[in-house]
Amino acid sequence: MNREKIVVIDFGGQYNQLVARRVRECNVYCEIYSYRTNLEQIKTMNPKGIILTGGPDSCYAPGAASCGRELFELGIPVLGLCYGAQLMMHVLGGRVGPAPVREYGKIEVTVDKSAKLFGDVSEKTICWMSHNDYIEEMASGFRAVARTKDCPVAAAQCEEKNLYAIQFHPEVLHTQEGTKMIRNFLYEVCHCEGNWKMDAFVENSISAIREKVGSGKVLCALSGGVDSSVAAVMLSKAVGEQLTCVFVDHGLLRKNEGDEVEAVFGPDGPYKLNFIRVNAQERFYEKLKGAREPEQKRKIIGEEFIRVFEEEAKKIGAVDFLVQGTIYPDVVESGLGGESAVIKSHHNVGGLPDYVDFKEIIEPLRDLFKDEVRRAGLELGIPEKLVYRQPFPGPGLGIRIIGEVTAEKVVMVQEADAIYREEIAKAGLDKGIGQYFAALTNMRSVGVMGDERTYDYAVALRAVNTVDFMTAEVAEIPWDVLGKVASRIVNEVSGVSRVLYDVTQKPPGTIEFE
Ligand code: GLN
């Protein structure tokens, strides 16, 4: 497949994935590579353009992340952002030093509208700054094309060599016209065609899978989550009944969720796939007996999941391919793509599971960001309700129950959560809040109901807004909605007599409640 490509070179900045997403939103495919990647490798990818990200170093300090002069002499357009901009100047003979006035946050920038990057941008435009250093002196051949009150070179260009430097962060949404600037780089400077489109991606993937699989047998573990659902449907469109999906119901799903998954993927659903639902609730509850530590519970659930899946796979016999719902952030965060430290090792990246007899792995979503997975899902005709479902942890309610998990507690948290979600939707808030759910605390307290003393559990409600899941703020749900939810939970869920609202942001909290 001849996809035009932009290479994003990662200098350890916090917005590296954001840069890549913005590029893709402009219909241009891109990939992130560490600044340590050798130049030959980048050359063979034949990119239409290169973008250098921000980074924490000072480019003039010893040991700072760097690149050779040759990068700027390939004849490929380069756009440096923040650290990338400073580095471009530094490497090409300009001077970068500590800024007399450091800029953080939204700053008004005055741009030169005759510059290619800013043709359709307002002359005065709000941009997101985050820097300690600044460009004191541009490299020769460059001219400044944007400035702020305190920063004389907020952007610079050397048009004949197609080199562009921006001190602020166009990739961050606070930069009001940032997408325009990125688009201008892609289309006015790199002359991209814009052939990264979801319908084409889906179509190409289906025929590539079909070719690869031939008459082979394919196995997929379906969790009901967005990634595995999209992967399964894509596979089923490609190879139909050669695909078998195993759905393990561990008894820690949200209320009715198992049936909902079955309704879509089971024999009565629209997809022609072999669907096996394993009702393993009791097994999981049994294994979880006495386990109180969240990590311990995660481990038990993870291992038991593999055991169950393995048993089912054995019944099916040897398969040729195993499907995994790996997505691009998993690849990057596993340290395989960019420069970011290994944040978490995803068991589905790199290592192959050894518990199923198969020849090869298929990861049809490996190149996609989450929002692209969703768009691919819609493209494949998966119901919106499934495509936009709330993120849900693999160990499910097992970690939204503090302390020991029991079948009774699972029912309490399922019921409470269902009421919460129902009322949020009724109030029209469901699209506006990032993530919300109920958890069951391990606290019991004295109450009075019908003149009788009770000693029951407390449910905690959580609702947060987040853009990237790295930080989150508490969503402000109106009191009347919270009040309604609280009284319904206490009235309708037996064993619960108190409702608490969690007002902790992340950090220091996490989004989950475990
Ligand atoms: N570390 C550099 C500075 O402080 C670049 C920062 C960035 O890329 N956001 O100026």
Can you offer a commentary on this structure?
This protein has 514 residues and is α/β, with parallel strands linked by helices. 32% of the residues lie in helices and 24% in strands. It is built from 14 helices and 18 strands. The strands form 3 sheets. The protein has a 9-stranded mixed β-sheet with strand order 2-1-3-4-9-8-7-5-6, with helices on both faces. Helix 8 packs antiparallel against helix 9. It is globular, with a radius of gyration of 26 Å. The protein starts with a strand and ends in a 13-residue tail after the last strand. The relative contact order is 0.09. Residues 341-352 have low confidence and may be disordered. The chain binds glutamine. Residues 13, 54-58, 82-83, 130-133 line the site of glutamine (GLN).
Brief overview, please?
The chain has helices at residues 16-25, 39-45, 83-91, 178-189, 198-213, 226-239, 257-265, 281-288, 294-316, 328-333, 370-379, 384-387, 407-426, 479-492; strands at 5-10, 29-34, 49-52, 78-81, 95-111, 124-137, 143-147, 155-158, 163-166, 218-222, 243-249, 274-279, 321-323, 360-362, 435-449, 452-465, 473-474, 496-501. The chain is α/β, with parallel strands linked by helices and 514 residues long.
